[in-house]
Design goal:
Blueprint: E1 3-7, H1 12-23, E2 27-32, E3 48-52, E4 71-74, H2 88-107, E5 112-118, H3 140-159, E6 162-168, E7 170-172, H4 181-190, E8 203-204, E9 206-208, H5 209-222, E10 228-231, E11 237-238, H6 239-250, H7 276-282, H8 290-299
Parallel strand pairs: 1-2, 1-4, 2-3, 4-5, 5-6, 6-10, 7-9
Antiparallel strand pairs: 8-11
Helix pairs in contact: 1-5, 2-3, 4-6, 6-8
């Protein structure tokens, strides 16, 4: 891989992927929405070019760069949080935009299209999540991701582009959203309060963003077309343990109030990725344990602080 295009590059995975690819000397074209405050997360670097393009503009995006690119990473997605996860019209638009991204990949000469799906495609499951685990999504977000995976695969086949779909579990790291469990707990602990929490009985699989970025880089290089890969650590711990590890890192003397918040309706109680295909096909494996990832995340709150002379872990 010499050049790559990324949409949604200002999220937790996208920012880590910028670091990973630039650290490997790979030239990037970042497609971003003009005026977004998150654009400040895109660093100035000789290997990075920005082009303003919203999701609704992808269908008409022309390649005027004079270059061809190798891999197209599509992370951008609207209506991802709260009640918007059941905004059916918004997610119908997201499916169209994902198809538009495949079309753009073709115009930019990309040989590989990698789409970012979600654990929400599975719905509530009890066992380890495999690529062929039956999917029963319970909200519009998961339904649209599942549909986008199938439809972009067929469109990519029509265009002669290798298609890889990923189902991402819980990623944490620099650039994480303020409303995620990790960041909301970190912020509450920093204020000196006593965070109110669920019982923490959920079995969860967290993966550090630098590990996720390496997985996406390696999928771009050696992933098998037509396959779906589950992206996670491959290990599950009770959520209570994760919360206690965050407390021990951020504010060891703080008290956590477990069981004072009820579980959400349709709460997913078990998330664990089967990463055997990802390991076998690319040679990837996770290397950052959760407490170490929290320490690194607290050091690197903005991608602009990254040292691009060092490859990701």
């Amino acid at each position: 891989m010499k050049r790559a295009v990324i949409t949604g590059a200002t999220g937790v995975v996208g920012t880590a992927l910028i670091k990973e690819l630039v650290g490997r000397g790979i030239e990037l074209l970042i497609l971003c929405r003009e005026g977004s405050p998150k654009n400040k997360r895109i660093p100035e670097h000789p290997l990075i070019a920005k082009k303003y393009c919203s999701l609704s503009e992808l269908s008409g995006l022309a390649n005027d760069t004079g270059k061809e690119y190798d891999v197209f990473y599509h992370f951008a997605w609207a209506a991802t949080a709260g009640p918007d996860r059941n905004n059916m019209h918004a997610h119908a638009d997201n499916i169209k935009h994902a198809l538009d991204a495949v079309g753009a990949a073709g115009r930019f000469g990309c040989r590989v299209f990698i789409g970012a799906g979600s654990q929400a495609e599975y719905g509530r499951q009890e066992g380890t999540l495999k690529p062929d685990t039956p999917c029963f999504p319970e909200n519009g977000y998961g339904m649209a991701k599942l549909c986008a995976g199938y439809m972009t695969r067929e469109y990519a086949r029509q265009l002669g582009i290798k298609h890889i779909w990923t189902r991402i579990l819980s990623i944490y790291g620099p650039g994480d959203g303020e409303n995620t469990m990790v960041m909301s707990l970190v912020n509450k602990l920093k204020t000196g309060g006593t965070p109110a929490l669920t019982e923490g009985g959920q079995m969860w699989d967290y993966l550090y963003s630098a590990d996720a970025a390496r997985a996406f880089r390696m999928l771009g290089e050696s992933g098998i077309g037509g396959k779906t890969y589950v992206v996670g650590s491959g290990k599950a711990r009770p959520l209570k343990e994760y919360m206690e590890m965050i407390r021990d890192t951020v504010c060891p003397d703080a008290r956590l109030s477990f069981g004072t918040v009820p579980y959400a309706e349709k709460q997913v109680m078990h998330l664990c990725a089967d990463i055997s295909d990802l390991e076998k096909d690319t040679g990837w494996r996770p290397v950052v344990d959760f407490p170490d990832g929290i320490k690194e995340m607290l050091k690197e709150n903005d991608i602009g602080t990254y040292d691009f002379s060092k490859n990701a872990l």
